[in-house]
Sequence to fold (247 residues):
Amino acid sequence: MTSQKVRTFVLETEEQLAQKLGLELVRCEKQALTKGRSFRIGLSGGSLVQLLTKAITSTPQLDTARWVFFFCDERYVPNDHSDSTFFAYKTHLLTQIPTILEKQFIKADTTKPLDECAADYESRLRAEFSDNTLPQFDLLLLGIGPDGHTCSLFPDQPVALAEVKRLVIPIRNSPKPPPERITFTFPLINNATDTIFALMGAGKADIVKRAFVESDEQLPAALVRPTKGQLTLIMDNGAGHIFLPAK
Ligand SMILES: O=C1O[C@H](COP(=O)(O)O)[C@@H](O)[C@H](O)[C@H]1O
Fold:
């Protein structure tokens, strides 16, 4: 179970949402860097790519030189394919923020067969944490799809949702294209220090309500319950409507 109360923030505009995300990045970065090591972040794809780019560009006090980026999920396509999450970050974040270097991204090797690609990403990840315990991310940035999926963990895929041993698994039947992906699993996700869902648009309102108000356990996003860490929802008025005081 989540040990701390979920923090919720509802902002009026996308700009304000990006600024709030920027301030959360400042907090998490400080927490990590004061431990004398890099700031390790797990990224999602989709709408987060442009939002995170905006958040970083609107927060000049961030010092991204010691950030290391991982992928909470990645599509099993070449790194220069338009469906690749890395490619999306390359197109937006790396282009707009030239001080962040490609070598700060720990990428999946999608030239390997899918099972190997997932196992290899787990090894790469473990190597960056340099001990044998369960890696603890400083921050995971997550999204939620209209079906309640998060990372590439989809409803009605009980084996993937129940994985307890592997930290990164292959997905072969994603209902959202492309069908083949790799994804973090819940033991890794729920061990993070901070986990932030950044959510925009009225199209997410219903799923936000089901996942975070009604805690509908059919939805993978509702199973994100950091064991010791902090869960935060940052939403715009559309997505976070349910959390606004009734008029
Ligand atoms: O397919 C994916 O979708 C989710 C949600 O994307 P969004 O565009 O609705 O924000 C994303 O979090 C995940 O990383 C991605 O692979």
About this structure: Strands lie at 7-11, 39-43, 67-71, 73-75, 139-142, 168-171, 181-184, 194-199, 230-236.
